[in-house]
């Protein structure tokens, strides 16, 4: 029999997760049934949304169960197959992360094309769910128009860097980002094409945003929530649009967080705030993949990855992600 090492949820955290909320287990896998494949994972994803799944609350995706493996995006290669559609050696994308060996019906695994000079992990970020999230939020939810001024919070993360680049390529007049260090701020303007960026840890987010966007903003892509959202509402031009993607500043709080104090602007300026989860917009994946793949091939879209080696370090990678230690996509290389 073949064994698989799993990272399981050991207990539900209160506030910030800690290593003791996780445990490692070795699981014996049954022999493959007809129509199934076995995959050796090469990269797995850690994502902010996983923090919400550690809570036993109703949400858009079921919570992780105590004593069971934590799932998430992963890419790997078929090492055993009983389905002709996925022969041995095929690189595949799937949702059985947080383990070294995955297996199941072939329909649960999607074959991907290896791209010259790029790791398979690109399908977890730029050409995967991360990139699609940026695409949907900016174009479908916020209805970006040519000439818009766009503000992105958490702009040096995997989604944020993509939002800024798509906005620029789609004709935004000005793209502004916030990040949590001087190095990340510099990267936004030097590598990712942002017109301006600021360090939110310097304080006075509203004042820094006003200085970066003296004529106001038309679109806000929110990854952070809290003070960032209030500042963006204050800077919005008439008929501004907000895509609510995440609120990482609130994921580990133990007390209710106050909402923005300037919500009356939604009425007086005719603003629109809309939340979304990318799982409801997979119908746009074809258009996204075709356009973004061409941009990546042409060098018009670039990306960074923060790579952590070893499944045994996956928990540390996840905790570091929640602290903002990553630049671009955080992945674990198995």
Mean pLDDT, all residues: 95
Tell me the CATH topology of the largest domain. Quinone Oxidoreductase, Chain A, domain 1
Q: How does the overall form come out from the CA principal axes?
A: globular
Given the structure, what is the number of helices?
9
Largest sheet: 7 strands, mixed
What low-confidence regions span 5 or more consecutive residues with pLDDT below 50?
Answer: none
- Which structural class is indicated by helix and strand composition? alpha/beta
The H-and-E topology, N to C, reads as EEEHEEEEHEHEHEHEHEHEHEHE
* Helix residue percentage: 10-25%
The CATH superfamily of the largest domain turns out to be Medium-chain alcohol dehydrogenases, catalytic domain
Note the beta-strand portion: 25-35%
β-strand number: 15
Top-tier CATH class of the largest domain: Alpha Beta
Distance between the termini: 21 Å
How many domains comprise the coordinates?
2
- Using only C-alpha atoms, the radius of gyration works out to 20 Å
Just name the CATH architecture of the largest domain: Alpha-Beta Complex
